[in-house]
From TrEMBL:
PANTHER family, alphabetized: GAG-POL-RELATED RETROTRANSPOSON, REVERSE TRANSCRIPTASE, RNA-DEPENDENT DNA POLYMERASE-RELATED
Signal peptide positions (record): none
Name of the molecule in the record: Reverse transcriptase, RNA-dependent DNA polymerase
Annotated GO MF terms: RNA-directed DNA polymerase activity
Length: 427
């Protein structure tokens, strides 16, 4: 608790003042948590002082509500826009940008419980920088991040030709942590012939170790869509993992060891049109026969968003599985369209490429509704988006559907073709 308040002082988070007339102070509270290592052993006790969110009223204490965290899609979207506008963002420390956001409104909070100033017990703190729990803090974080990105850019001829998105330093750290800095490499992240099963008769492995490896890999998928499907597939076995599952995870690490510099590439001379691809892998999940949704969205040839997720229901046909995947992709497209309005671009009739003709017929023709009554209603909003001309469904051959990368494992030649198609190159 003392360390938390010391940081507030160093960062000039607040100032002790008299509460002005017609103003009220927002309550504060302490939140405690334990930080554990991969073995589940507590290594640090943490205390955080936060504002009481439930005491704040819209229109009095705040006007707008922002998401509590930045979506990686928002950052990649900005970088794609940056490459199109011919400037490069460099040395992007997102964590630092988020910690210190300036509060522009007059916000007052009560003194921390147990740490009231004995000389001025009736005074309150005027918040200067962000404080967890304040609705204004979220807006301040986003503004600070945007300002930081725009200020840390260069438009010189030498640097303004492309942008690479890479987590190479982080990847090297996790390779060293688990002893994969000197191992035989693999050319793909998963074998195509060995399905991941429960394998109840095989030997158990350390759950904490397995979950730690999965968690670190999940963070890496923020810039490495080439391992997205494989990591998600292995993540399904975090309860009682077996040797088979650990070997699958180790293969992902061996693949990363062989491709340490593979990164997303955003070229300058690419169109700025929004396109999307969607696909599904029908009933391939070994445990429950559910299908896998895959989707990716591009600005020109710049990959800005990608998804891999096991569907929540068992699809009765390939068409149903593809329709559910297309609806998920449509939702991502609508979110991106809304974000691009902030950049002054109004995209209509965004092309969503799919390799299933029946799904396109269902989206375009309401006569097919009688054949889709068993599909959950929430997936049918894609029809409404099609009628409003927000999207248009385009048939594409399976070989050219790059969303296939996010639905299954492949042999070397097909895998290399797909990662090149989504704009991944070695630095």
């Amino acid at each position: 608790m003392q360390e938390e308040l010391l940081q507030f002082k160093l960062q000039e988070v607040w100032t002790l003042v008299e509460l002005p007339n017609e103003k009220r102070a927002i309550g504060t509270k302490w939140v405690f948590s334990n930080k554990k290592d991969e073995r589940g052993i507590v290594i640090k006790n943490k205390a955080r002082l936060v504002a009481q969110r439930y005491t704040q009223e819209k229109g009095i204490d705040y006007d707008e509500v922002f998401a509590p965290i930045a979506r990686i899609k928002a950052i990649t979207l900005f970088l794609a826009y940056a490459s199109f506008k011919d400037f490069v963002v460099y040395h992007m420390d997102v964590k630092r940008a988020f910690l210190y956001g300036k509060i522009e409104e007059e916000v007052y909070v009560c003194q921390p419980p147990g740490f009231e100033d004995p000389d001025f017990p009736d005074r309150v703190y005027k918040v200067e920088n962000t404080l967890y729990g304040l609705h204004q803090a979220l807006k301040a974080w986003y503004k600070t991040l945007s300002t930081y990105l725009l200020d840390n850019r260069s438009a010189s001829e030498a640097e303004g030709r492309w942008i690479f998105i890479s987590q190479e330093k982080y990847m090297n750290e996790i390779l060293n942590k688990f002893g994969f800095s000197d191992v035989k490499t693999a050319r793909t992240p998963m074998e195509t012939q060995k399905a991941l099963l429960k394998d109840a008769d095989r030997e158990d492995v350390d759950e904490n170790l397995y979950r730690s490896m999965i968690g670190l890999l999940m963070y890496l998928t923020s810039s490495r869509p080439d391992i997205m499907f494989e990591v998600c597939a292995c993540a399904r076995f975090q309860v009682n993992p077996k040797v088979l599952h650990l070997h699958a995870v180790k293969r992902i690490f061996r693949y990363l060891k062989g491709q340490p510099k593979l990164s997303l590439w955003y070229p300058k001379d690419s169109p700025f049109d929004l396109v999307a691809y969607t696909d599904s892998d029908y009933a391939r999940a070994s445990l429950d026969r559910k299908s896998t949704t895959g989707g990716c969205q591009f600005l020109g040839c710049r990959l800005i968003s990608w998804q891999c997720k096991k569907q929540t229901v068992v699809a009765n046909s390939t068409t149903e599985a593809e329709y559910i995947a297309a609806s998920n992709c449509c939702g991502q497209v609508l979110w991106i369209q809304n974000q691009l309005l902030d950049y002054g671009y109004n995209f209509m009739q965004t092309k969503i490429h799919i390799d299933n003709e029946s799904t396109i017929c269902i989206v375009k023709n309401p006569v097919f509704h009688s054949k889709t009554k068993h599909i959950e209603i929430r997936h049918h909003f894609i029809r409404d988006s099609n009628e409003k001309k927000l999207i248009q469904m385009i048939k594409i051959h399976t070989d050219q559907n790059v969303a296939d990368l996010l639905t299954k494992a492949f042999d070397v030649s097909r895998f290399q073709y797909l990662i090149a198609s989504i704009g991944m190159l070695n630095l």
